[in-house]
Specification:
By secondary structure, the chain is α+β, with helices and mostly antiparallel strands. It has a domain of 40 residues. It has four helices and twelve strands. The strands form three sheets. The chain has a five-stranded antiparallel β-sheet. It is globular and about 50 Å long.
């Protein structure tokens, strides 16, 4: 692991566990990061329509996406917050957690001591807002524990079955499907219940 990657990992871990970060430590880490060259991210900054699993993490990395049905937008995930910025550079959404773009849809993820949630995002007239909850996993579930122990829980998501019926929503993590409550769904094998 390169020195810059180690510093980025420190910041991610501090953010994951919501550790207090003194301004002096934050300044020292960021100043030290400037001593090391940036990693080449130009190949991942522009995303093609064929990419189905896209996540922007880190600080201040930004990844641009475009959808056929809406304006160009950029998502930004920092240590504690996520943002959507429109093509004019205006912040049109801000919240705690992470954003992912998967199966041509935007979702907001969040984890705290009470639960892990995955919500759909609604895009209307250039503005973004939270939609319906698709997954709500409590701490006693397998899904919550996988996400809680992950370095960055947004990277764990492999696929989602997004349904208008809450009970039919499913999430694929570590090769296994989980139901809308975060329990392992051994009976789910196909993608038949997508709507």
């Amino acid at each position: 692991m390169k020195e810059r990657e180690e510093l980025e990992l420190i910041l991610k871990l501090i953010g994951k566990y919501n550790l207090p970060l003194s301004p002096i430590l934050e300044y020292a880490v960021k100043e030290k990061m400037e001593e090391y060259p940036e990693m080449d991210t130009t190949s991942s900054d522009v995303v093609s329509e064929s990419d189905s699993r896209l996540i922007a993490i880190g600080e201040p990395e930004m990844v641009s996406y475009s959808e056929e049905s809406c304006d160009d937008f950029t998502i930004k995930n920092t240590l504690n917050r996520c943002f959507i910025i429109n093509h004019l550079g205006e912040k049109v959404f801000s919240a705690a957690g992470r954003l992912i773009y998967i199966n041509e849809k935007m979702y907001q993820l969040n984890i705290n001591t009470e639960c892990f949630t995955l919500k759909s995002m609604i895009h209307e007239e250039g503005l973004w807002e939270n939609g319906e909850e698709k997954i709500v996993a409590l701490p006693d579930t397998e899904l919550y524990n996988i996400m809680d122990y992950s370095l960055d829980y947004a990277y764990e998501i492999e696929d989602i079955v997004d349904s208008t019926v809450f009970e039919n929503c499913k999430l694929k993590v570590e090769g296994a499907w989980f139901d809308y409550k975060g329990f392992l769904d051994l009976g789910y094998q196909s993608e038949d219940c997508r709507d």
